[in-house]
Design goal:
Layout: H1 14-24, H2 27-38, H3 40-132, H4 135-138, H5 141-153, H6 157-185, H7 187-217, H8 219-233, H9 238-243, H10 247-299, H11 305-346, E1 371-378, E2 388-395, E3 400-404, H12 411-418, E4 426-431, E5 434-435, H13 441-445, E6 448-451, H14 462-467, H15 477-486, H16 490-494, H17 516-527, E7 535-539, H18 547-560, E8 565-569, H19 573-576, E9 581-586, E10 589-594, H20 596-602, H21 605-618
Parallel strand pairs: 3-8, 3-9, 6-7, 7-8
Antiparallel strand pairs: 1-2, 1-4, 4-5, 9-10
Length: 619
């Protein structure tokens, strides 16, 4: 697993946070590229609307000053012309206000459209990355946390970061126009405006990092909270929850974890309120200090009443604009922290090998290829113990090999290596004389038909549940029907209300739930969709079906696998004894290898396990 990107724990001191801000804001170019890719026209429209909206407030403030001065002049004997001028100015301000409201609505509409476009783009990128990840990534909690953090923020955080950047531009343009007006009236008030707003920025940066820590670094506990909820709300858990009275235990753990989250959120919210109140009072004090100064100047006749109104309006709005800039910077800091999760996820390396120098090789097409394992050893990432050790084995074309052994002996691990879901830690696996490392994974896997013990129960139609075994033939109903017959699922399907078009599972409307054995027959049928498969793998294919169905299945299986390699993993020795050879795995090594007759004559581990199971049937 690669070291964390920029998702390392946020520094605690302000100095350290400011030092680290540069690396965090390097997330901005990538975010803006995504924003442009999502909607180029939307980016242009948003920029134009933002610029125009930034100029309107100063224009409204200036017209307001002219109205006040015009009213004073008209009331002092200015005559009809002065009164008409006031009316024209009021109409102009009305027009500016209409324009301001329209711009705000247009900006809101543009944001909503961009939110949808950008959220969809990012979700697609996240899902595309998920397709590129290897099995080892899904079995690693750190990678899972990165994925969940990325998914959680994809629909809101990137656009919020972009909008914060546009808000900074808008407020800076507005503030620059205000500054021109303020400097003409009182240069030092600009200094007061800036000085009163800086503490808010410091507090915002501090609280942003704490917010990131809460929402990002408690991802493992968040996953646990979701899991506890899953236990209490899914149909496949309800029986044990009821029978074993697990409800109070699970709900209690859920409540404890939720209360922990709530207390953390509450502490942060109170801290935000405290800082916000204190800094708000500081800002308010600065404003009224300037208010006294300006009102005194107006009372002495040094400035007009309109100048006083303009000054107060511009100072207050300028203060809000400056605080808006600092708040947006703090929010962007927090957004960049969250975006680092997304980019860390998208940049997860997905290749275990060095870049390929030579073109990928391919084994000859057809069922005449042998599988050979040469001193294969494997251990899972982050583990010290070996799952497989110095395993050498050869399967000839058309051979049926059964794997037996206790749980954890390495049977399913071997299947993962054959399908190149993992690479051997040591040694090589050859197919048709070609090292699996030199074959394209898609080419290799297209030659296998497989059914796993933990097969997926898709909440799709019956036809799709079977047809997904060979996506290219998903619309080939005749092929799906043949696969169902070969997998022993025809009787199950014929009893369903809409047969092959019946929706399965309980997640969606009119879904039909099946028993474990019925689902497993569909899973076996799915493996038989690959009629041209060169190798068949059955990993505990009969765990949930009755003995009669199991016998019928393996009779069909022997016929279908007559000229191709078949690898069978099973704890049922009535199934195992049909194989040409049986490999007994123990602690990741092949302890015994031979036919059923040979291994019984040897009277070793296999014979012991077989007799234990046979005794259970006899007793």
């Amino acid at each position: 697993m690669s070291p964390p990107h920029v998702t390392a724990r946020p520094p605690q001191s302000l100095k350290a946070r400011l030092k680290n801000a540069g690396s965090l804001f390097r997330q901005l170019p990538g975010t803006f590229r995504l924003f442009w890719e999502a909607s180029p026209w939307g980016a242009v429209v948003l920029g134009a609307l933002t610029l125009v909206a930034a100029l309107v407030p100063a224009a409204i403030a200036w017209v307001g000053k002219l109205i006040v001065d015009g009213v004073v002049a008209a009331s002092s004997g200015g005559g009809p012309a002065a009164r008409e001028q006031v009316v024209r100015l009021v109409v102009l301000e009305f027009g500016l206000m209409v324009g301001s409201v329209t711009l705000d609505r247009a900006l809101a509409l543009t944001r909503e459209l961009l939110r949808a476009s950008l959220g969809n783009l990012l979700n697609e990128r996240i899902l595309q990355k998920a397709l590129q990840l290897e099995l080892r990534h899904f079995e690693d909690s750190d990678t899972y946390d990165k994925m969940q953090n990325a998914r959680r923020e994809a629909n809101s955080r990137p656009l919020a970061l972009v909008m914060d950047a546009f808000a900074i531009v808008r407020n800076m343009v507005t503030l620059s126009t205000y500054a021109v007006l303020l400097v003409a009236l009182s240069p030092w008030s600009v200094v007061v405006l800036v000085a009163a707003s800086i503490p808010a920025f410091i507090a915002e940066a501090r609280l942003a990092a704490e917010g990131f820590r809460l929402y990002s670094w408690r991802a493992p506990e968040g996953r646990k909270l979701n899991y506890l909820e899953w236990i209490l709300t899914r149909d496949n858990h309800v029986k044990e929850v009821k029978v074993f009275a697990l409800g109070s235990l699970v709900l209690g753990r859920y409540r404890t974890l939720f209360q922990k989250f709530f207390q953390e959120d509450r502490a942060l919210a109170l801290k935000r309120m405290g800082w916000g109140l204190g800094l708000g009072l500081l800002s308010l004090g600065a404003f009224y200090g300037c208010y006294v100064f300006v009102a005194n100047r107006a009372a002495q006749g040094e400035i007009s009443v309109g100048d006083m109104v303009l000054y107060l309006s511009v100072f207050r709005q300028g203060q809000a604009a400056f605080q808006g800039i600092l708040s947006s910077v703090g929010s962007m800091y927090e957004g960049a922290l969250f975006m680092s999760n997304l980019f860390a996820y998208l940049e997860i390396p997905t290749g275990q090998e060095a870049p390929r120098v030579l073109p990928a090789r391919t084994a000859p097409k057809g069922r005449g290829n042998a599988i050979e394992l040469r001193n294969v050893s494997f251990r899972y990432p982050g583990k010290q113990e070996w799952a497989l050790r110095n395993l050498s084995l050869k399967l000839e074309p058309g051979e049926k090999l059964a794997l037996v052994g206790e749980n954890g002996a390495g049977k399913s691990t071997l299947v993962k290596l054959l399908l190149r879901l993992y690479e051997p830690t040591e040694g090589d696996i050859l197919y048709g004389g070609v090292n699996l490392k030199d074959m394209e994974p898609e080419d290799l896997r297209s030659r296998f038909g497989a059914v796993f013990q933990d097969f997926v129960r898709y909440q799709f139609s019956v036809a799709e549940n079977i047809g997904l075994g060979h996506v290219a033939a998903l619309e080939d109903r005749n092929r799906i029907v043949r696969a169902a017959e070969q997998g022993g699922a025809s009787a199950v399907i014929s009893a369903l209300p809409n047969q092959y078009d019946t929706m399965l599972g309980g997640w969606f409307e009119k879904g039909q739930e099946l028993s474990g054995g019925q689902w497993q027959k569909l899973g076996v049928a799915r493996a038989f969709m690959r009629e041209d498969a060169e190798v068949l793998i059955l990993d505990e294919p009969t765990a949930s079906i009755d003995a009669e169905s199991e016998h019928a299945l393996f009779e069909r299986f022997q016929e279908l696998a007559a000229d191709r390699i078949a690898l069978v993993i099973s704890h049922r020795f009535s199934t195992v004894r049909m194989a040409d050879r049986i490999a007994v795995l123990h602690n990741g090594e092949v302890e015994e290898l031979g036919s059923h007759t040979d291994l019984m004559a040897r009277n070793g581990r296999y014979a012991h396990l077989f007799n234990l199971q046979a005794r259970g049937y006899r007793d």
